Amino acid sequence: MTDDLVAALGPLLTAEAAAEAYACGSDPGDLEQTVWLRLLEHLETHGPPRAPEDWLRRAVRAESRRTRRATRRERPYGTEPADRATPTPELLALANARHRALREAVARLPDRCPRLLQALLSPKDLTYREIAGELGISQGSLGPERSRCLGCLRRLLTPEVAPREARG
For the whole prediction, is pTM greater than 0.85? Predict the structure, then answer.
């Protein structure tokens, strides 16, 4: 009985779902699957419908209306769920590892370089005059000293950083 009903209603359901799906913004296959589920529920509780074709048309339209109502109530997120504004634990761990590697490399620099780079990166946002006074060097030699220290830092970090791939 059920197999005969499914075989008889299959083409009609496919046609009805295709006709109603566009209006409710749904996929015809999804609408068709939902109506099959409703039919199984109806068979379990009430037995086969008296007029199966009419029941099927009403079920398709009811599901279509239900989908339209749900679509009208749904609101999109203000931001994407995977928004980069709130970093994931993985991104935080990677950033911490990079900062730790940088701090360790700065600590291995020669002469005044660790103090100079710490002063340059200070949250106090010191001026060149303040940094020069703090380190006891002239303000004019601060630029060349900074360049030398950054070159040393670059050479220290080069083995730790993956080489760039050749382009072209």
Answer: no
